[in-house]
Amino acid sequence: MIGNGGDSSENESEINEDELQRLLNCYPNQEQENAESSDNLSVTASEMSFLSESFWSSDDNDDNGDIESDMSFSLWDDSVELEVLAPHAESESSEQEAVQWEYPRSNWNVWRAWKERQNGLKANMSSDWYGYKAMGSLHFVRRLTAMNTLEAHEGCVNCLSFDPTGRLLVSGSDDCRLVLWDWALGKPSVTVPSGHTHNIFQAKFTSGLDDGGIVTSAYDGQVRYVKVAPDGSVSISKRLVLHEEAAHSVCMVSHNPNVILSCGSDGYVFETDLREDETKRLFCTSDVHGISYPLYSIAAHPRKPEEFAIAGLSNYVLFFDRRRISDSPCAERRYRQEAEAESDNIVTSIVYSHDGLELLASYSGLSAHLFDTSHSDYASPIKSYFGYRNFQTVKGINFYGPSSEFIMSGSDCGHIFFWDKNSEKLVNVLLGEERGVVNALVSHPHCSVLATGGLEPVVKLWAPVGGMANMNARYVQRVLRSNARHRYRRNIMFTARGQIPSATGATAERVVRFRPPAIIREEDIEAPEWRQNGDFPPECHMS
User: Fold this and answer.
1) Which of 303, 414, 429, 522 has the highest count of CB atoms within 10 angstroms of its CB?
2) What is the pLDDT of residue 12?
3) C-alpha distances in angstroms, 376 versus 370, 372, 381?
């Protein structure tokens, strides 16, 4: 905790004004056509979940407590005065000023396109082209609504993956089981024993079920391969790799799903060829940087089988060429985001766009960043996305749309955030978990269905089947401010200067403001003098 001195209520009011304004600026602000358009926001059935009693009485008091205590207003009552949660407490006008928020207008008129296709006005507008444009339009993102809830697990759902055909969905959980879902029917197809002894972190199909299997990684350090026969029986179940610590991420090499890459908290990257039943260690992060640090994510280029990227307890995203890795590997390129706080230095997830021209990285804290993969070494991000909260778990981030038109991410506050990739504007916020923390989310490879999982032992399916939603701007503003306040608290609570033990026994001195589970323990950090006295750090400031 922070220490003995200082009132918590005073700390909450000291959030940096510039940081909050940066978060609020991610909303598209357009001139109102008339005054009533913002005073009479319509509410659809999908927004009713925002008012659910279970959300306000969530078990995760630490995560949702701020929203619960600061959001006691009616979604329909626009006469209520806005209680601003700092940093504008000194400004009376800001306290009563609601955010004038509107969705950005779509650059594709679905009604006009539909009429033109029906009347044959555009010969090149095939049904495939029309569906392609519709799935990548803002209209579909705005209409996303919870379609079904799949129940079979007994623990948190940590990972989700559709098979290449899109017919099956696999989910992995803390209960160490894999469940294959016939998601269209809303029921499990088969439950598969994974062979893991601890939480499953990732599960991916190698190919279709008829001729492939599933690769999994887990907290027990194992990377395993399970092949499921068409009748649902398990024909193969074996261990491919054993990491010294948790195995966080796996990926398949493009155009060759038999080659598996994995990384873990031990800092090692392994390559396994299923055809030769051979596993080799490619390198360790200590080979590249001279010090070992945990890796949380690995991603293979969708069109270049030789390229892959890794990320972890560092603000760098490293790119490698499999053909050039030797005993002394060197990253082909290094991309990084200049962190405003040490807690933002950790990359929890990376993913390539559909064509591999862009790479998305989720940083701990409140930001995700988009990199152009054609840029040279030490390139900075070309786009940034703010507002969500990423502290508690190693959660994923992903693209949405057939051409990666949107960015989506789960959050510790239980919401799912959607941004327009090009404009960086926040375009939708959905309540994904009543207990908080959305861990995993993945879109269907051929349609606009979205699957999400989190702390609840269920898988939720979303589809654009609802009406045109109009979110209450003040609700979203309060969610953003609550997330900003949590970031401020974490930066204070986990600031300590000490030694971080690495997987190889080496140590490095740095400022620790984020404590990943099972990697850095509080007792491993020697408290500095200012912390022993219960004071704030001398260099403490708002990032």
Assistant:
1) 414
2) 42
3) 14, 9, 12
pLDDT in tens, 248-301: 999 999 988 889 999 999 999 999 998 887 889 999 988 777 788 999 999 999
- CB contact at 8 A, 406 and 400: yes
**Better-predicted residue by pLDDT, 164 or 395:** 164
Q: Does CATH number 1.10.1040.10 belong to domain 136-478?
A: no
Helix (H) / strand (E) element for 499: namely strand 496-501
172-191 pLDDT tens trace: 999 999 999 999 999 998 99
Q: How many CB atoms lie within 10 A of CB 54?
A: 10
Q: How far apart are CA 305 and CA 208, in angstroms?
A: 19
Stretch among 28-32, 307-311, 352-356, 419-423 having the lowest mean pLDDT: 28-32
Residue with tokens 């579909």: 140
Using a 10 angstrom Cβ sphere, with 0-12 exposed, 13-18 middle and 19 or more buried, the burial of residue 89 is middle
Q: Which helix (H) or strand (E) holds 319?
A: strand 316-321
335 vs 344: CA distance, rounded Å: 15
Whole-structure pTM value: 0.73
**405 backbone φψ class: left, alpha, beta (φ>0; ψ -120 to 50):** alpha
- If you ran DSSP here, which 8-state letter would residue 379 be given? B
Contact between residue 421 and residue 383 where contact means Cβ atoms under 8 Å apart: yes
Report the DSSP beta bridge partners of residue 310. Answer: 298, 318
Task: Report which of 535, 540, 409, 538 is spatially closest to residue 6, judged by C-alpha positions.
Answer: 535
Q: Residue range 390-398: average pLDDT?
A: 82
Q: Which amino acid is at 334?
A: R
All structural domains of the chain with their residue ranges:
136-478
Distance CA 320, CA 331 (A): 5
Q: How many whole angstroms separate alpha carbon 72 and alpha carbon 56?
A: 9
Kindly report the length of the chain. 543
CA dist 412 and 436 (Å) reads 6
Asked which of 17-31, 267-281, 502-516 is least confident by mean pLDDT, the reply is: 502-516
Nearest to 415 by CA among 468, 345, 471: 471
How much is the average pLDDT of 354-380? 88
Half-sphere exposure in the Cβ direction for 315 (13 Å, CA):
19
Calpha distance 210→230 (Å, rounded): 6
- Angstrom distance (rounded) from CA 11 to CA 488: 9
DSSP per residue, 129-166: HHHHHHHTSHHHHHT-EEEEEEE--SS-EEEEEE-TTS
Both tokens of residue 222?
A: 């194992």
CA 307 to chain centre: 22
**Cβ neighbours, 10 Å, residue 529:** 9
CB distance 350 to 309 below 8 Å: yes
Give yes or no for a contact between 420 and 372, defined as CB atoms under 8 angstroms apart. no
